[in-house]
């Protein structure tokens, strides 16, 4: 298996976020890929996939000739339990996990073909607003299916808890000397702290997903659409919709109470808890953006979710 060039976005983000540890991971990638190729009897079937931030992902073929994907991750809190979730999903609404390497966190996955992303799919006979509602319905249906009770799996990583995110926000936003208190989201941080308190005692717990968006759903043959790249957390149902609602509100075309109602109904989640999670994600985004246009767009998203 010839080692392909690491996509520029992966190299940039791993180095920016993880420094020398990221460089060590990049330096070890060729050896890791070569070892897994021998372990799982794989051969390269094309160049590495572009995009992404924490993974080297390349199409391969198994010894039988079956198409698959080799995914080598830079492990962190968000993605360490991805193989655990995929194992428990067992292909129900998400790509199948064929093999898992505990040493590195690498996975051999089902290849979704043709693999077109839902966010860029045009539906024949639908104008843009109608197509957007259809995409939202597909996404909510899949994420609703994937939320399920968690079972511990021997040999697989455990799940981080969504309440740990609330603890981190409390610590950062409650610190009057923090960078967030000096930035564009400063006026919203007391609201964020109040939302953290409201969400501290979830009514249910299961396998939630931190990274719900339309780019993580691709077309396939086994099912019309499959979820890829889950970021699983132990969380309530409304947690899944937090990022999804934030992203949909931020990018349009739908907005406000109508959008909130559609996502809450589609996920089977409490609308107020869903709105609270979305607001937290939107405020977190506001604390990080730079530039007049980006700040204005982030503030508009927060305001729209407040008024939904």
UniProtKB/TrEMBL annotation:
Coiled coil: none
GO biological process: secondary metabolic process
This protein's record includes keyword Transferase: yes
Pfam families (UniProt xref): APH_6_hur
UniProt GO MF annotations: kinase activity; phosphotransferase activity, alcohol group as acceptor
Protein keywords: Kinase, Transferase
Protein name: Kinase
The species this protein was found in: Glycomyces luteolus
């Amino acid at each position: 298996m010839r080692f392909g060039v690491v996509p520029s976005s992966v190299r940039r983000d791993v180095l920016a976020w993880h420094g020398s540890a990221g460089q060590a991971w990049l330096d070890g990638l060729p050896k890791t890929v070569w070892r897994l190729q021998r372990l799982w009897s794989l051969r390269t079937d094309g160049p590495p996939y572009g995009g992404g931030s924490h993974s080297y992902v390349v199409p391969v073929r198994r010894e039988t000739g079956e198409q698959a994907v080799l995914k080598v991750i830079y492990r962190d809190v968000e993605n360490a339990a991805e193989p655990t979730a995929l194992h428990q999903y067992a292909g129900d609404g998400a790509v199948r996990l064929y093999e898992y390497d505990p040493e590195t966190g690498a996975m051999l996955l089902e290849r979704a073909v043709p693999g077109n992303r839902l966010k860029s799919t045009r539906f024949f006979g639908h104008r843009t607003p109608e197509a957007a509602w259809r995409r939202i319905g597909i996404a909510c249906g899949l994420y609703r299916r994937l939320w399920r009770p968690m079972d511990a799996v021997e040999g697989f990583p455990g799940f981080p808890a969504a309440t740990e995110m609330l603890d981190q926000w409390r610590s950062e936003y409650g610190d009057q000397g923090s960078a967030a208190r000096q930035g564009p989201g400063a006026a919203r941080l007391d609201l964020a702290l109040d939302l953290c308190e409201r969400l501290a005692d979830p009514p249910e717990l299961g396998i939630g997903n931190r990274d719900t968006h339309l780019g993580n759903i691709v077309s396939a043959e086994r099912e019309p659409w499959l979820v890829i790249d889950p970021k699983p957390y132990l969380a309530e149902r409304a947690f899944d919709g937090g990022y999804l609602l934030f992203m949909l509100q931020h990018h349009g075309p739908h907005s406000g109470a109508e959008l909130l109602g559609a996502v809450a109904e589609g996920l089977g989640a409490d609308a107020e808890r869903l709105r609270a999670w979305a607001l937290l994600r939107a405020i977190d985004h506001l604390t990080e953006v730079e530039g007049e246009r980006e700040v204005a767009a982030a503030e508009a998203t927060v305001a729209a979710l407040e008024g939904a």
